[in-house]
Amino acid sequence: MKCICVYAASNIGRYSGYKKGAQALGRILVNKGIRLVYGGSKMGLMGTVADEVLNQGGQAIGVMPRSLFNKEINHERLTQFIEVDTMHERKAKMGELAEGFVALPGGLGTFEELIEVFSWSQIGIHKKPIGLLNINNYFSPFLHMIEASVEAGFAQADILELLIIEEDPETLIEKMMDYERPKLSQKQQ
């Protein structure tokens, strides 16, 4: 695995463990020789993981729509900064460059990105690993929502096998490096 896309908040969050987890993830990416691709901001957890990658001598690629330059502050020290026109192009470019995806804690943007790659994995558009860095059980309510969709008959029980869920960033990356996409059961009528 040479490049991982990280989805993360443009805010830092209230719990100090979020920032520490983002920093640890950045160090591990560099130690494993993995490039970072992400949304290009220097703010929040996005900026934290990019700063750590760069401070450790790694490569960080940012992808940002021109329309966000006034709202989000783009990171100026990146290895590569790719300008695109739309959010759709941003996500497509990040997905094209990445061999896997990691979600750090975040808000609606992070959830939207995560749900898209999760859904696309389910229907076979990609076969890349998806990791959740579940710092302070941040993603537990999301996982409960997926379990509720299974219980209600809207998703197959094995859908959660598409996600690698870990609290420790090193364990998460190691599992992603060894990932083999599970074969999912067929939809029921």
Which short descriptors sum up this protein?
EC 3.2.2.n1, Rossmann fold, 40% helix, hydrolase activity, hydrolyzing N-glycosyl compounds, cytokinin biosynthesis, LOG_fam, single chain, Cytokinin riboside 5'-monophosphate phosphoribohydrolase, 7-stranded parallel β-sheet, 16% strand
Structure, explained:
The chain has one domain: Rossmann fold (3-Layer(aba) Sandwich). The protein has six helices and seven strands. The chain has helices at residues 16-31, 44-55, 87-97, 108-122, 140-151, 169-177; strands at 3-7, 35-38, 60-65, 80-84, 101-103, 130-133, 163-166. A seven-stranded parallel beta sheet has the order 4-3-2-1-5-6-7, sandwiched between helices. Helix 1 packs parallel to helix 2. The longest helix has 16 residues, at 16-31.
How are the SSEs ordered, and which strands pair?
Elements: E1 3-7, H1 16-31, E2 35-38, H2 44-55, E3 60-65, E4 80-84, H3 87-97, E5 101-103, H4 108-122, E6 130-133, H5 140-151, E7 163-166, H6 169-177
Parallel strand pairs: 1-2, 1-5, 2-3, 3-4, 5-6, 6-7
Helix pairs in contact: 1-2
Number of strands: 7
Mean pLDDT: 94
**How many domains would you count in the coordinates?**
1
Q: β content, as a range?
A: 15-25%
CATH class: Alpha Beta
Shape: globular
Structural class label: alpha/beta
The whole-angstrom Rg is 16 Å
What is the overall number of helices? Answer: 6
Distance between the termini: 37 Å
Supply the CATH architecture: 3-Layer(aba) Sandwich
Spell out the helices and strands N to C.
EHEHEEHEHEHEH
- Runs in which pLDDT lies below 50 for 5 or more consecutive residues are none
* CATH third-tier fold name: Rossmann fold
Side by side, the strands of the main sheet go 4-3-2-1-5-6-7
Helical residue percent band = 25-40%
